[in-house]
Amino acid sequence: MSHPPTLNKRLILVVLLSLLGHATAADTSAEECELADPTLYLWDAKQLSNLKKKYQSGDASSVFKSSLSFLERECAEALDGETYSVTYQKRVPESGDIHDYQSVGYYWWPCAEAEHEGFNNCVQKTKTGTEPKECVDDAKWGSIPWRYCDGHHNAATFEYSSKESMQQMTNQVRDLALLWYYTEKDQYARIASQLLQVFFLDEDTRMNPMLQYAQFVPDLWYFESAGLIEITGWTELLEAVAILRTSQHWSNAHHRQLMDWMYELMEWLQTSRMGEKEHYAGNNHAVWYYQTVIGMGLHVTEIFSFHGYPAMTHERLSDNTHTRAHLFVCCAERKLGFSS
């Protein structure tokens, strides 16, 4: 089972990535949106280049060298050739298509297990116009209905999920791309390219470009739009892909295929009922939705004309502390020809 990065891992990535700073909305100026490398929108391309020059000349700090060594150790297992795909999931989604991504929300429990654990804050969500059901045994789901128990993480939900494969792929491609960038060791780019091809491009293992079954609720056929937040890491994934384009292992043909795939996903994010709910969520989910769609859109525009720029305003985001969304809005407007 994958786990969130530890604090140490997060600090390592900050050192190696030199992520954009956390300016407040009030002091986010147009100049702050100027990116040295037009293919990178979240990572500071100029700073990455400076760090690489220092590393190659032997002038890198001990902190940087230690961080890079740590990441190499972390990625050692990735070099064994293990790949990730939604088609490796243990249960076929309700659609019957193994290529559909699926996950169950962390806080959902079969009713019998929730009662056994003694959780006293569980809620049973029902379809409109229906009454709550009694808890009964069920051969497929253990017991039904499932209940939402806020704050109580059900680790067993990974059994019904392709989320772990997706997260492993995302994290490893990001880390391997950084290692390729700094060390120029061919093996890192080769493995990263293989991971991307298996997850997104190969006919037998590719994911369908939609998230209809992200955080679905067993038995209820209830779709949680909140599941779209699970791909927020793909803004960094596409930054990593931009770096991999400098290697021989990620060809123009590969890149065009991936951008085709991302374009289809963006269309779904902006036209589906789940995407619309996240768009108007009015909380952090809306901000992450904006960042995901815009972050993907900035890369896709290198091939397509992106006409699906979400209708949004700076005022709508101004009270939110996720200020990277402001930077994305600013840069997107400049790139796509919208006025601020």
Automatic annotation (TrEMBL):
Highest taxon of source: Eukaryota
Gene3D superfamilies tied to this protein: Chondroitin AC/alginate lyase
Name the UniProt record assigns to this protein: Alginate lyase domain-containing protein
Limits of the Alginate lyase domain: 86-298
InterPro entries: Alginate_lyase_dom, Chondroitin_lyas
Record keywords: Lyase, Signal
Membrane-crossing segments per the record: none
Position of the signal peptide: 1-25
One MF term in the entry's GO annotations: lyase activity
